[in-house]
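Throughout our pipeline, every protein is held as a single compact record rather than as scattered files. Nothing more is needed to write down the fold, since each code stands for a local backbone conformation. For reference, a complete record is included directly beneath this paragraph.
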Amino acid sequence: MFRLPRQSRNGITSKATRMVALSMACVMMVAACSKGDGVQIGTGQDPDPVVIDFPIAYIKSPLPVDDNGVFQQQDLREQITFEFGADLYFRDRASPSAEAVNITESVSQGLAAIRDVEIDYDGSRLLFSMRVPFDPDVDEEDLPTWNVWQYTFETGVLERVITSDLTAEIGHDIMPKYLPDGRIIFSSTRQTQSQAVLLDEGKGGFPAQDEDDNEHAFNLHVMNDDGTSVKQVSFNQSHDLDPSVMADGTIVFSRWDHNQSNDAVNLYRMNPDGSVLELLYGQQSHATGTNGEIIQFMQPRQLRRSMLKTRSRPRTTSAS
């Protein structure tokens, strides 16, 4: 058994903003049934027949504010952000008295943005996205991309999954999840198969912009856990985000449908290789927020009783 993490979202701009008030986001209960090298029940706690204290991992990050100190809201259609100043922490007990271990400090040096923390099925590794380092003297388009990183508890090794600098910087990689077979599914702007088609047609290979012409479109990709064999498995003119593994092995994810009068984020389902794609939920259910507010369906998770839980949010919403 493991408890899935809650994810965070950073600010809406990709330029640096003034930072105030550290936020503890992305709190994750890190629990595993493995008797091997994965994380276990927290140490140093008194026996309690009712409450078991599990380790946690969480992101500590500045809140994004504008020049007037007003908290900025995030547009779900804008994923290429860089609100630097974040680090990933681990505590072996969900208690203020437990020591907080900064997992990313050696790499971040206070100049990283971090998001999308996940845990492996056996509790042995953490998977997350990090963008580092921020440099105020570098143009926005020349800053590093979002990359998928991995931390192994047994060895204490923190490493970028795609080791090649050239390959890692081809696109922005976010929202990684472990697949049951050990591979990783993630959302990326690299659009590997789409660009290959363009090259086969004698055209220049380039990542397509989303339909708002605002940033490169994120589509779902899979790769081995050593960063090899990257393959695009979803094809959308706008963003495909938040992949999550269902109990039957299929992938549920949030798709920004944007064509003609349709402009909303719905839930879709497919096999890990991209086959048997189908609309799952949402197309006729957006006016279901408080007082009829229009909401979008993000971060789907399957609960133990096979129910599907999402974080239903307006298209422009605050970070969590």
